[in-house]
Design goal:
This protein is an alpha/beta fold. It folds into four domains: 259 residues, no CATH class; 212 residues, Rossmann fold (3-Layer(aba) Sandwich), CATH 3.40.50.2300; 51 residues; 271 residues. It is 52% helix and 10% strand. It has 30 helices and 18 strands. It starts with a helix and ends with a helix.
Length: 994
Amino acid sequence: MGDDKDKGSLLPISTVAVMLAAFGVTMFVQPFKGSRPFVPEYRESYEKVDARLWQDPFQAVLDSLKAGAAGDGAGQVDIGNGGPKERRETRFTSAYLEKIEDTKKVEVLAVMVPGGPYFEDTEGRMRFRYALLSGLKRVGFVSDDALHVEFIKIASPDKKITLSNIIPIEWLEYEKDKKESVLVLWINDDTFEGTPLSKLAHLFDYIEKTKKLRRINVRFKVIGPAISGRLGEMVREVSDNKTAGWGKTLDGVKIYSPWATVDNARLLKEATGEMASDENDARAKIKNKFRNHKITLIRTIGTDAALVKELIEELKRRRVDLRSKKSHLLLVAEWDTFYGRSFKNLFNEALKETLKSDGVPDNKIDIDQRIHFISYLRGIDGSVPGEKGDQDKKDGNAQPKSDPLSDIKKLEQPVGKSQYDYLRRLAAATYELNENLRAKGDDEEIKAIGVMGSDFYDKYLVLQALRQQFPDAIFFTTDLDARFLHPDNIKWTRNVIVASNFNLSLRKDAVVDVQGEAPPFRDNYQTSVFLTVLRAFKDKWTSNLDEDVVKCLSQFADEERKGKALSPLIFEIGRHKAVCLTDPSDTVRPQREQTVVGIRSYVRTALVIALGLVVLFWTSTRINNYVKQLCHAEGKYKIVAVGGVLLLVVAFGYAVLRISNRADEEPFSVLEGISIWPAEILRFLAFLLSALFLYLSWSSREANRKLINEKLFRIKEEPDRPLQANDTNDKPGETKQGTRLRDLWLDYVSRDSDRHRVLRVIIILIFYVPLCGLIISFDPPVSPVRGGISPWIDLGVLSFSSFSLVVVIFYVFDVTRCCRRFITTASDNISALHQSGGDIRDQVKNQMTLVRLIAIRTDTVGKLIFYPFIVWFLMFASRFDYFDNWRTPPGLAVVIFLGAMYAWSSAFLLRQSAERARTCAVDRLKDLLLINLGDKKPSPDLTKHIEAALDEVRSMRQGAFAPFTQHPIVQSLLVPFGGVSGIYLVDFLAKMNF
């Protein structure tokens, strides 16, 4: 039995342990969640090649063929890739023969796309095909068969159909003239590795030798290659005349490069070893090399070097000054690609060039210790083709998704294909690096982190890992992708800075719509392909596009021919869209969105405000009366004050609109979560409300004072004359206790005046403000602001609003403290006078007067607690990350809640003092009742009088004596939490003459 009891006691302990473990993992260690879709294995079967226009043409062919058979309908071409020497007669599939016979002009478009089996390759092929066909549709070419594709088989020893030995083909016809057509050849970029131009020559020679094509005009164009390395191989080929045995096959061929982003200087050096003086010189040398072979190379996308330079400029706009030793930069990139490995050198070179242009001497340029590099391998999630992720497996023995223990067991296990455990250690190593930098004591730390890679899902996982460790750092990457904006990813991608050559569309404005019917694309490379197609088919502009679009594209082409580089664009990922922060230099890409366009918007805004004020004036009696009071002579100072406030509001609004419309400043947005201006507006409103609340506090207490003087003490007041102790109508009949209570009241009124309060508040601020600064200094908050002017506005508005909040808090604190002191002093003095005896009726009257006085006074003073809480809530709400990447460090949180507790505690103590005074008054009335009943001849009327007084005191519900749930100290706590507090707040504002 004892053993059973011992065993039974372990159950709740283990249960609690499991719950705590699950809580710890889910709350403090957020597991990585990959989002890479499932990639099926390619299977080789033989059947009709069905493919919609948005499908991957390679996968469509492989899915429609039987293993090992090419069929009679497929041609076979030797591209010089080690295939058999003997081959059958080359010809196109019979499906195209009849169409070609009647065609006068054929544009052969060879499109080089990624050829790997991984998801990124499959997705890339789908995206590029969609963009290419959309571009051809824009200039007037439509698919002849939107449901099928055919293919050419590349000669190879292996008879199996694979990704590397097929070339899917499709036919498009010109809508206005069926005699003009486009033949699209989808080329696996990997298959053309080594000598891409030679293999293209073999392919084009195959097409030219087709007998049916000899009588028509054939022009060859190439869109590609898919990677920068392949472009380097092309440069190497045109530089080495020995390998250029193409004859005249490639004469007149135009190569359009919409994907390769390596800069020309690096491309030239890596391919040929030649050096260039600058980027333009390298560009000219490369073009000349191609031109020597009668080939035209047109690069239609910007380079990585340009993106890096623009990123450095953007970091400077965000106050990450890499000239200072305090600012460090971390680059996280894949090391198994040239693209990823090149970024460290790109940043080093670009930063050195930037520092030189800023006038920094060469001997003071020391940046090697400030740019840190950490690498990873592609495919962090371990996903491979043909294998589903753990979340997609339908194994009956698998743990349910809702079981936290399942996530704990799988959390970054250091075994298997998944690299999550490397990612966790990468984040830990980065954090340790940053701590070592901070330990130097020179305020050195990692200010910005760049995540560079060719795989979006890898970058997404790195963002998950590092943004948990570096919530204040600026994260940036390259290449805009719609996956950044997906709701499942936005938690980790919002506020990431993206340098990209294109937006997701080419809609410049409502008039110049380059993209036409096509919706926004999935990534910037699709946009590049679309624009490249328009560039390649320039002869179709005039007949198919609007005049404004034709003019826009012509200007862009002219600038491109003159060698003007494509300026990069900087985006910040918002909650619903990528917000463009810079204006492109060309006329094709959309300009940065303007907050307010033209003077008409200003006029409309002013008209709306004016009409709103007129409606309020005619519908609100109180506002109507208040405006009429301003029209009197004594209201002139109020007119000046109101006019000054309106002028301040207009000036602030105008400044925000003008500054936010500048490309180098903070943009304006309310819903995207990338702008500081909503926070600045809330802080500015808090500042204005602080001034208003200080005035309302004074005016409400003055009105309350006059009411008490008239109702309880019958004190006469005259303008410009201070109160006197003998200002009463019934001095001859006044009791000693009544005189003492009046004197205490007059003394309190004197101490409660603002001329004395200012000094007391200043003394408190002298000690409180440095204390708050010291607390915050341990982990100072970071403002996510950009630009040269916006930070100063942010600092100014924050300083004024924070100071005004502190003033309101301690103003109300001092008001309640004075009132509390008066209540305590008056209660004690009346108690002392009560002990000295006197007429019972006078004593009852004085007790009643004291309680009524407390109720009436605290009814006004107690409501002042709403003022600091309203301002405090606005300041608190201004740091919501809904508006921008605001973070509230522990020190700032302590300061924020410390101020709130000061205000709330003063009101709570005021209620305690009032309740204690009422308890004393009840006890005294009970004593008076006992004294009356103890007389030899007790007075029944006096007994009833005392009992009525007791009932009134006990049932008092005004001011500090209100029920606890209806008291301002409770209602004020509900202000930051919404819900029912909104009702309380509206009711309060209505009672305060709003």
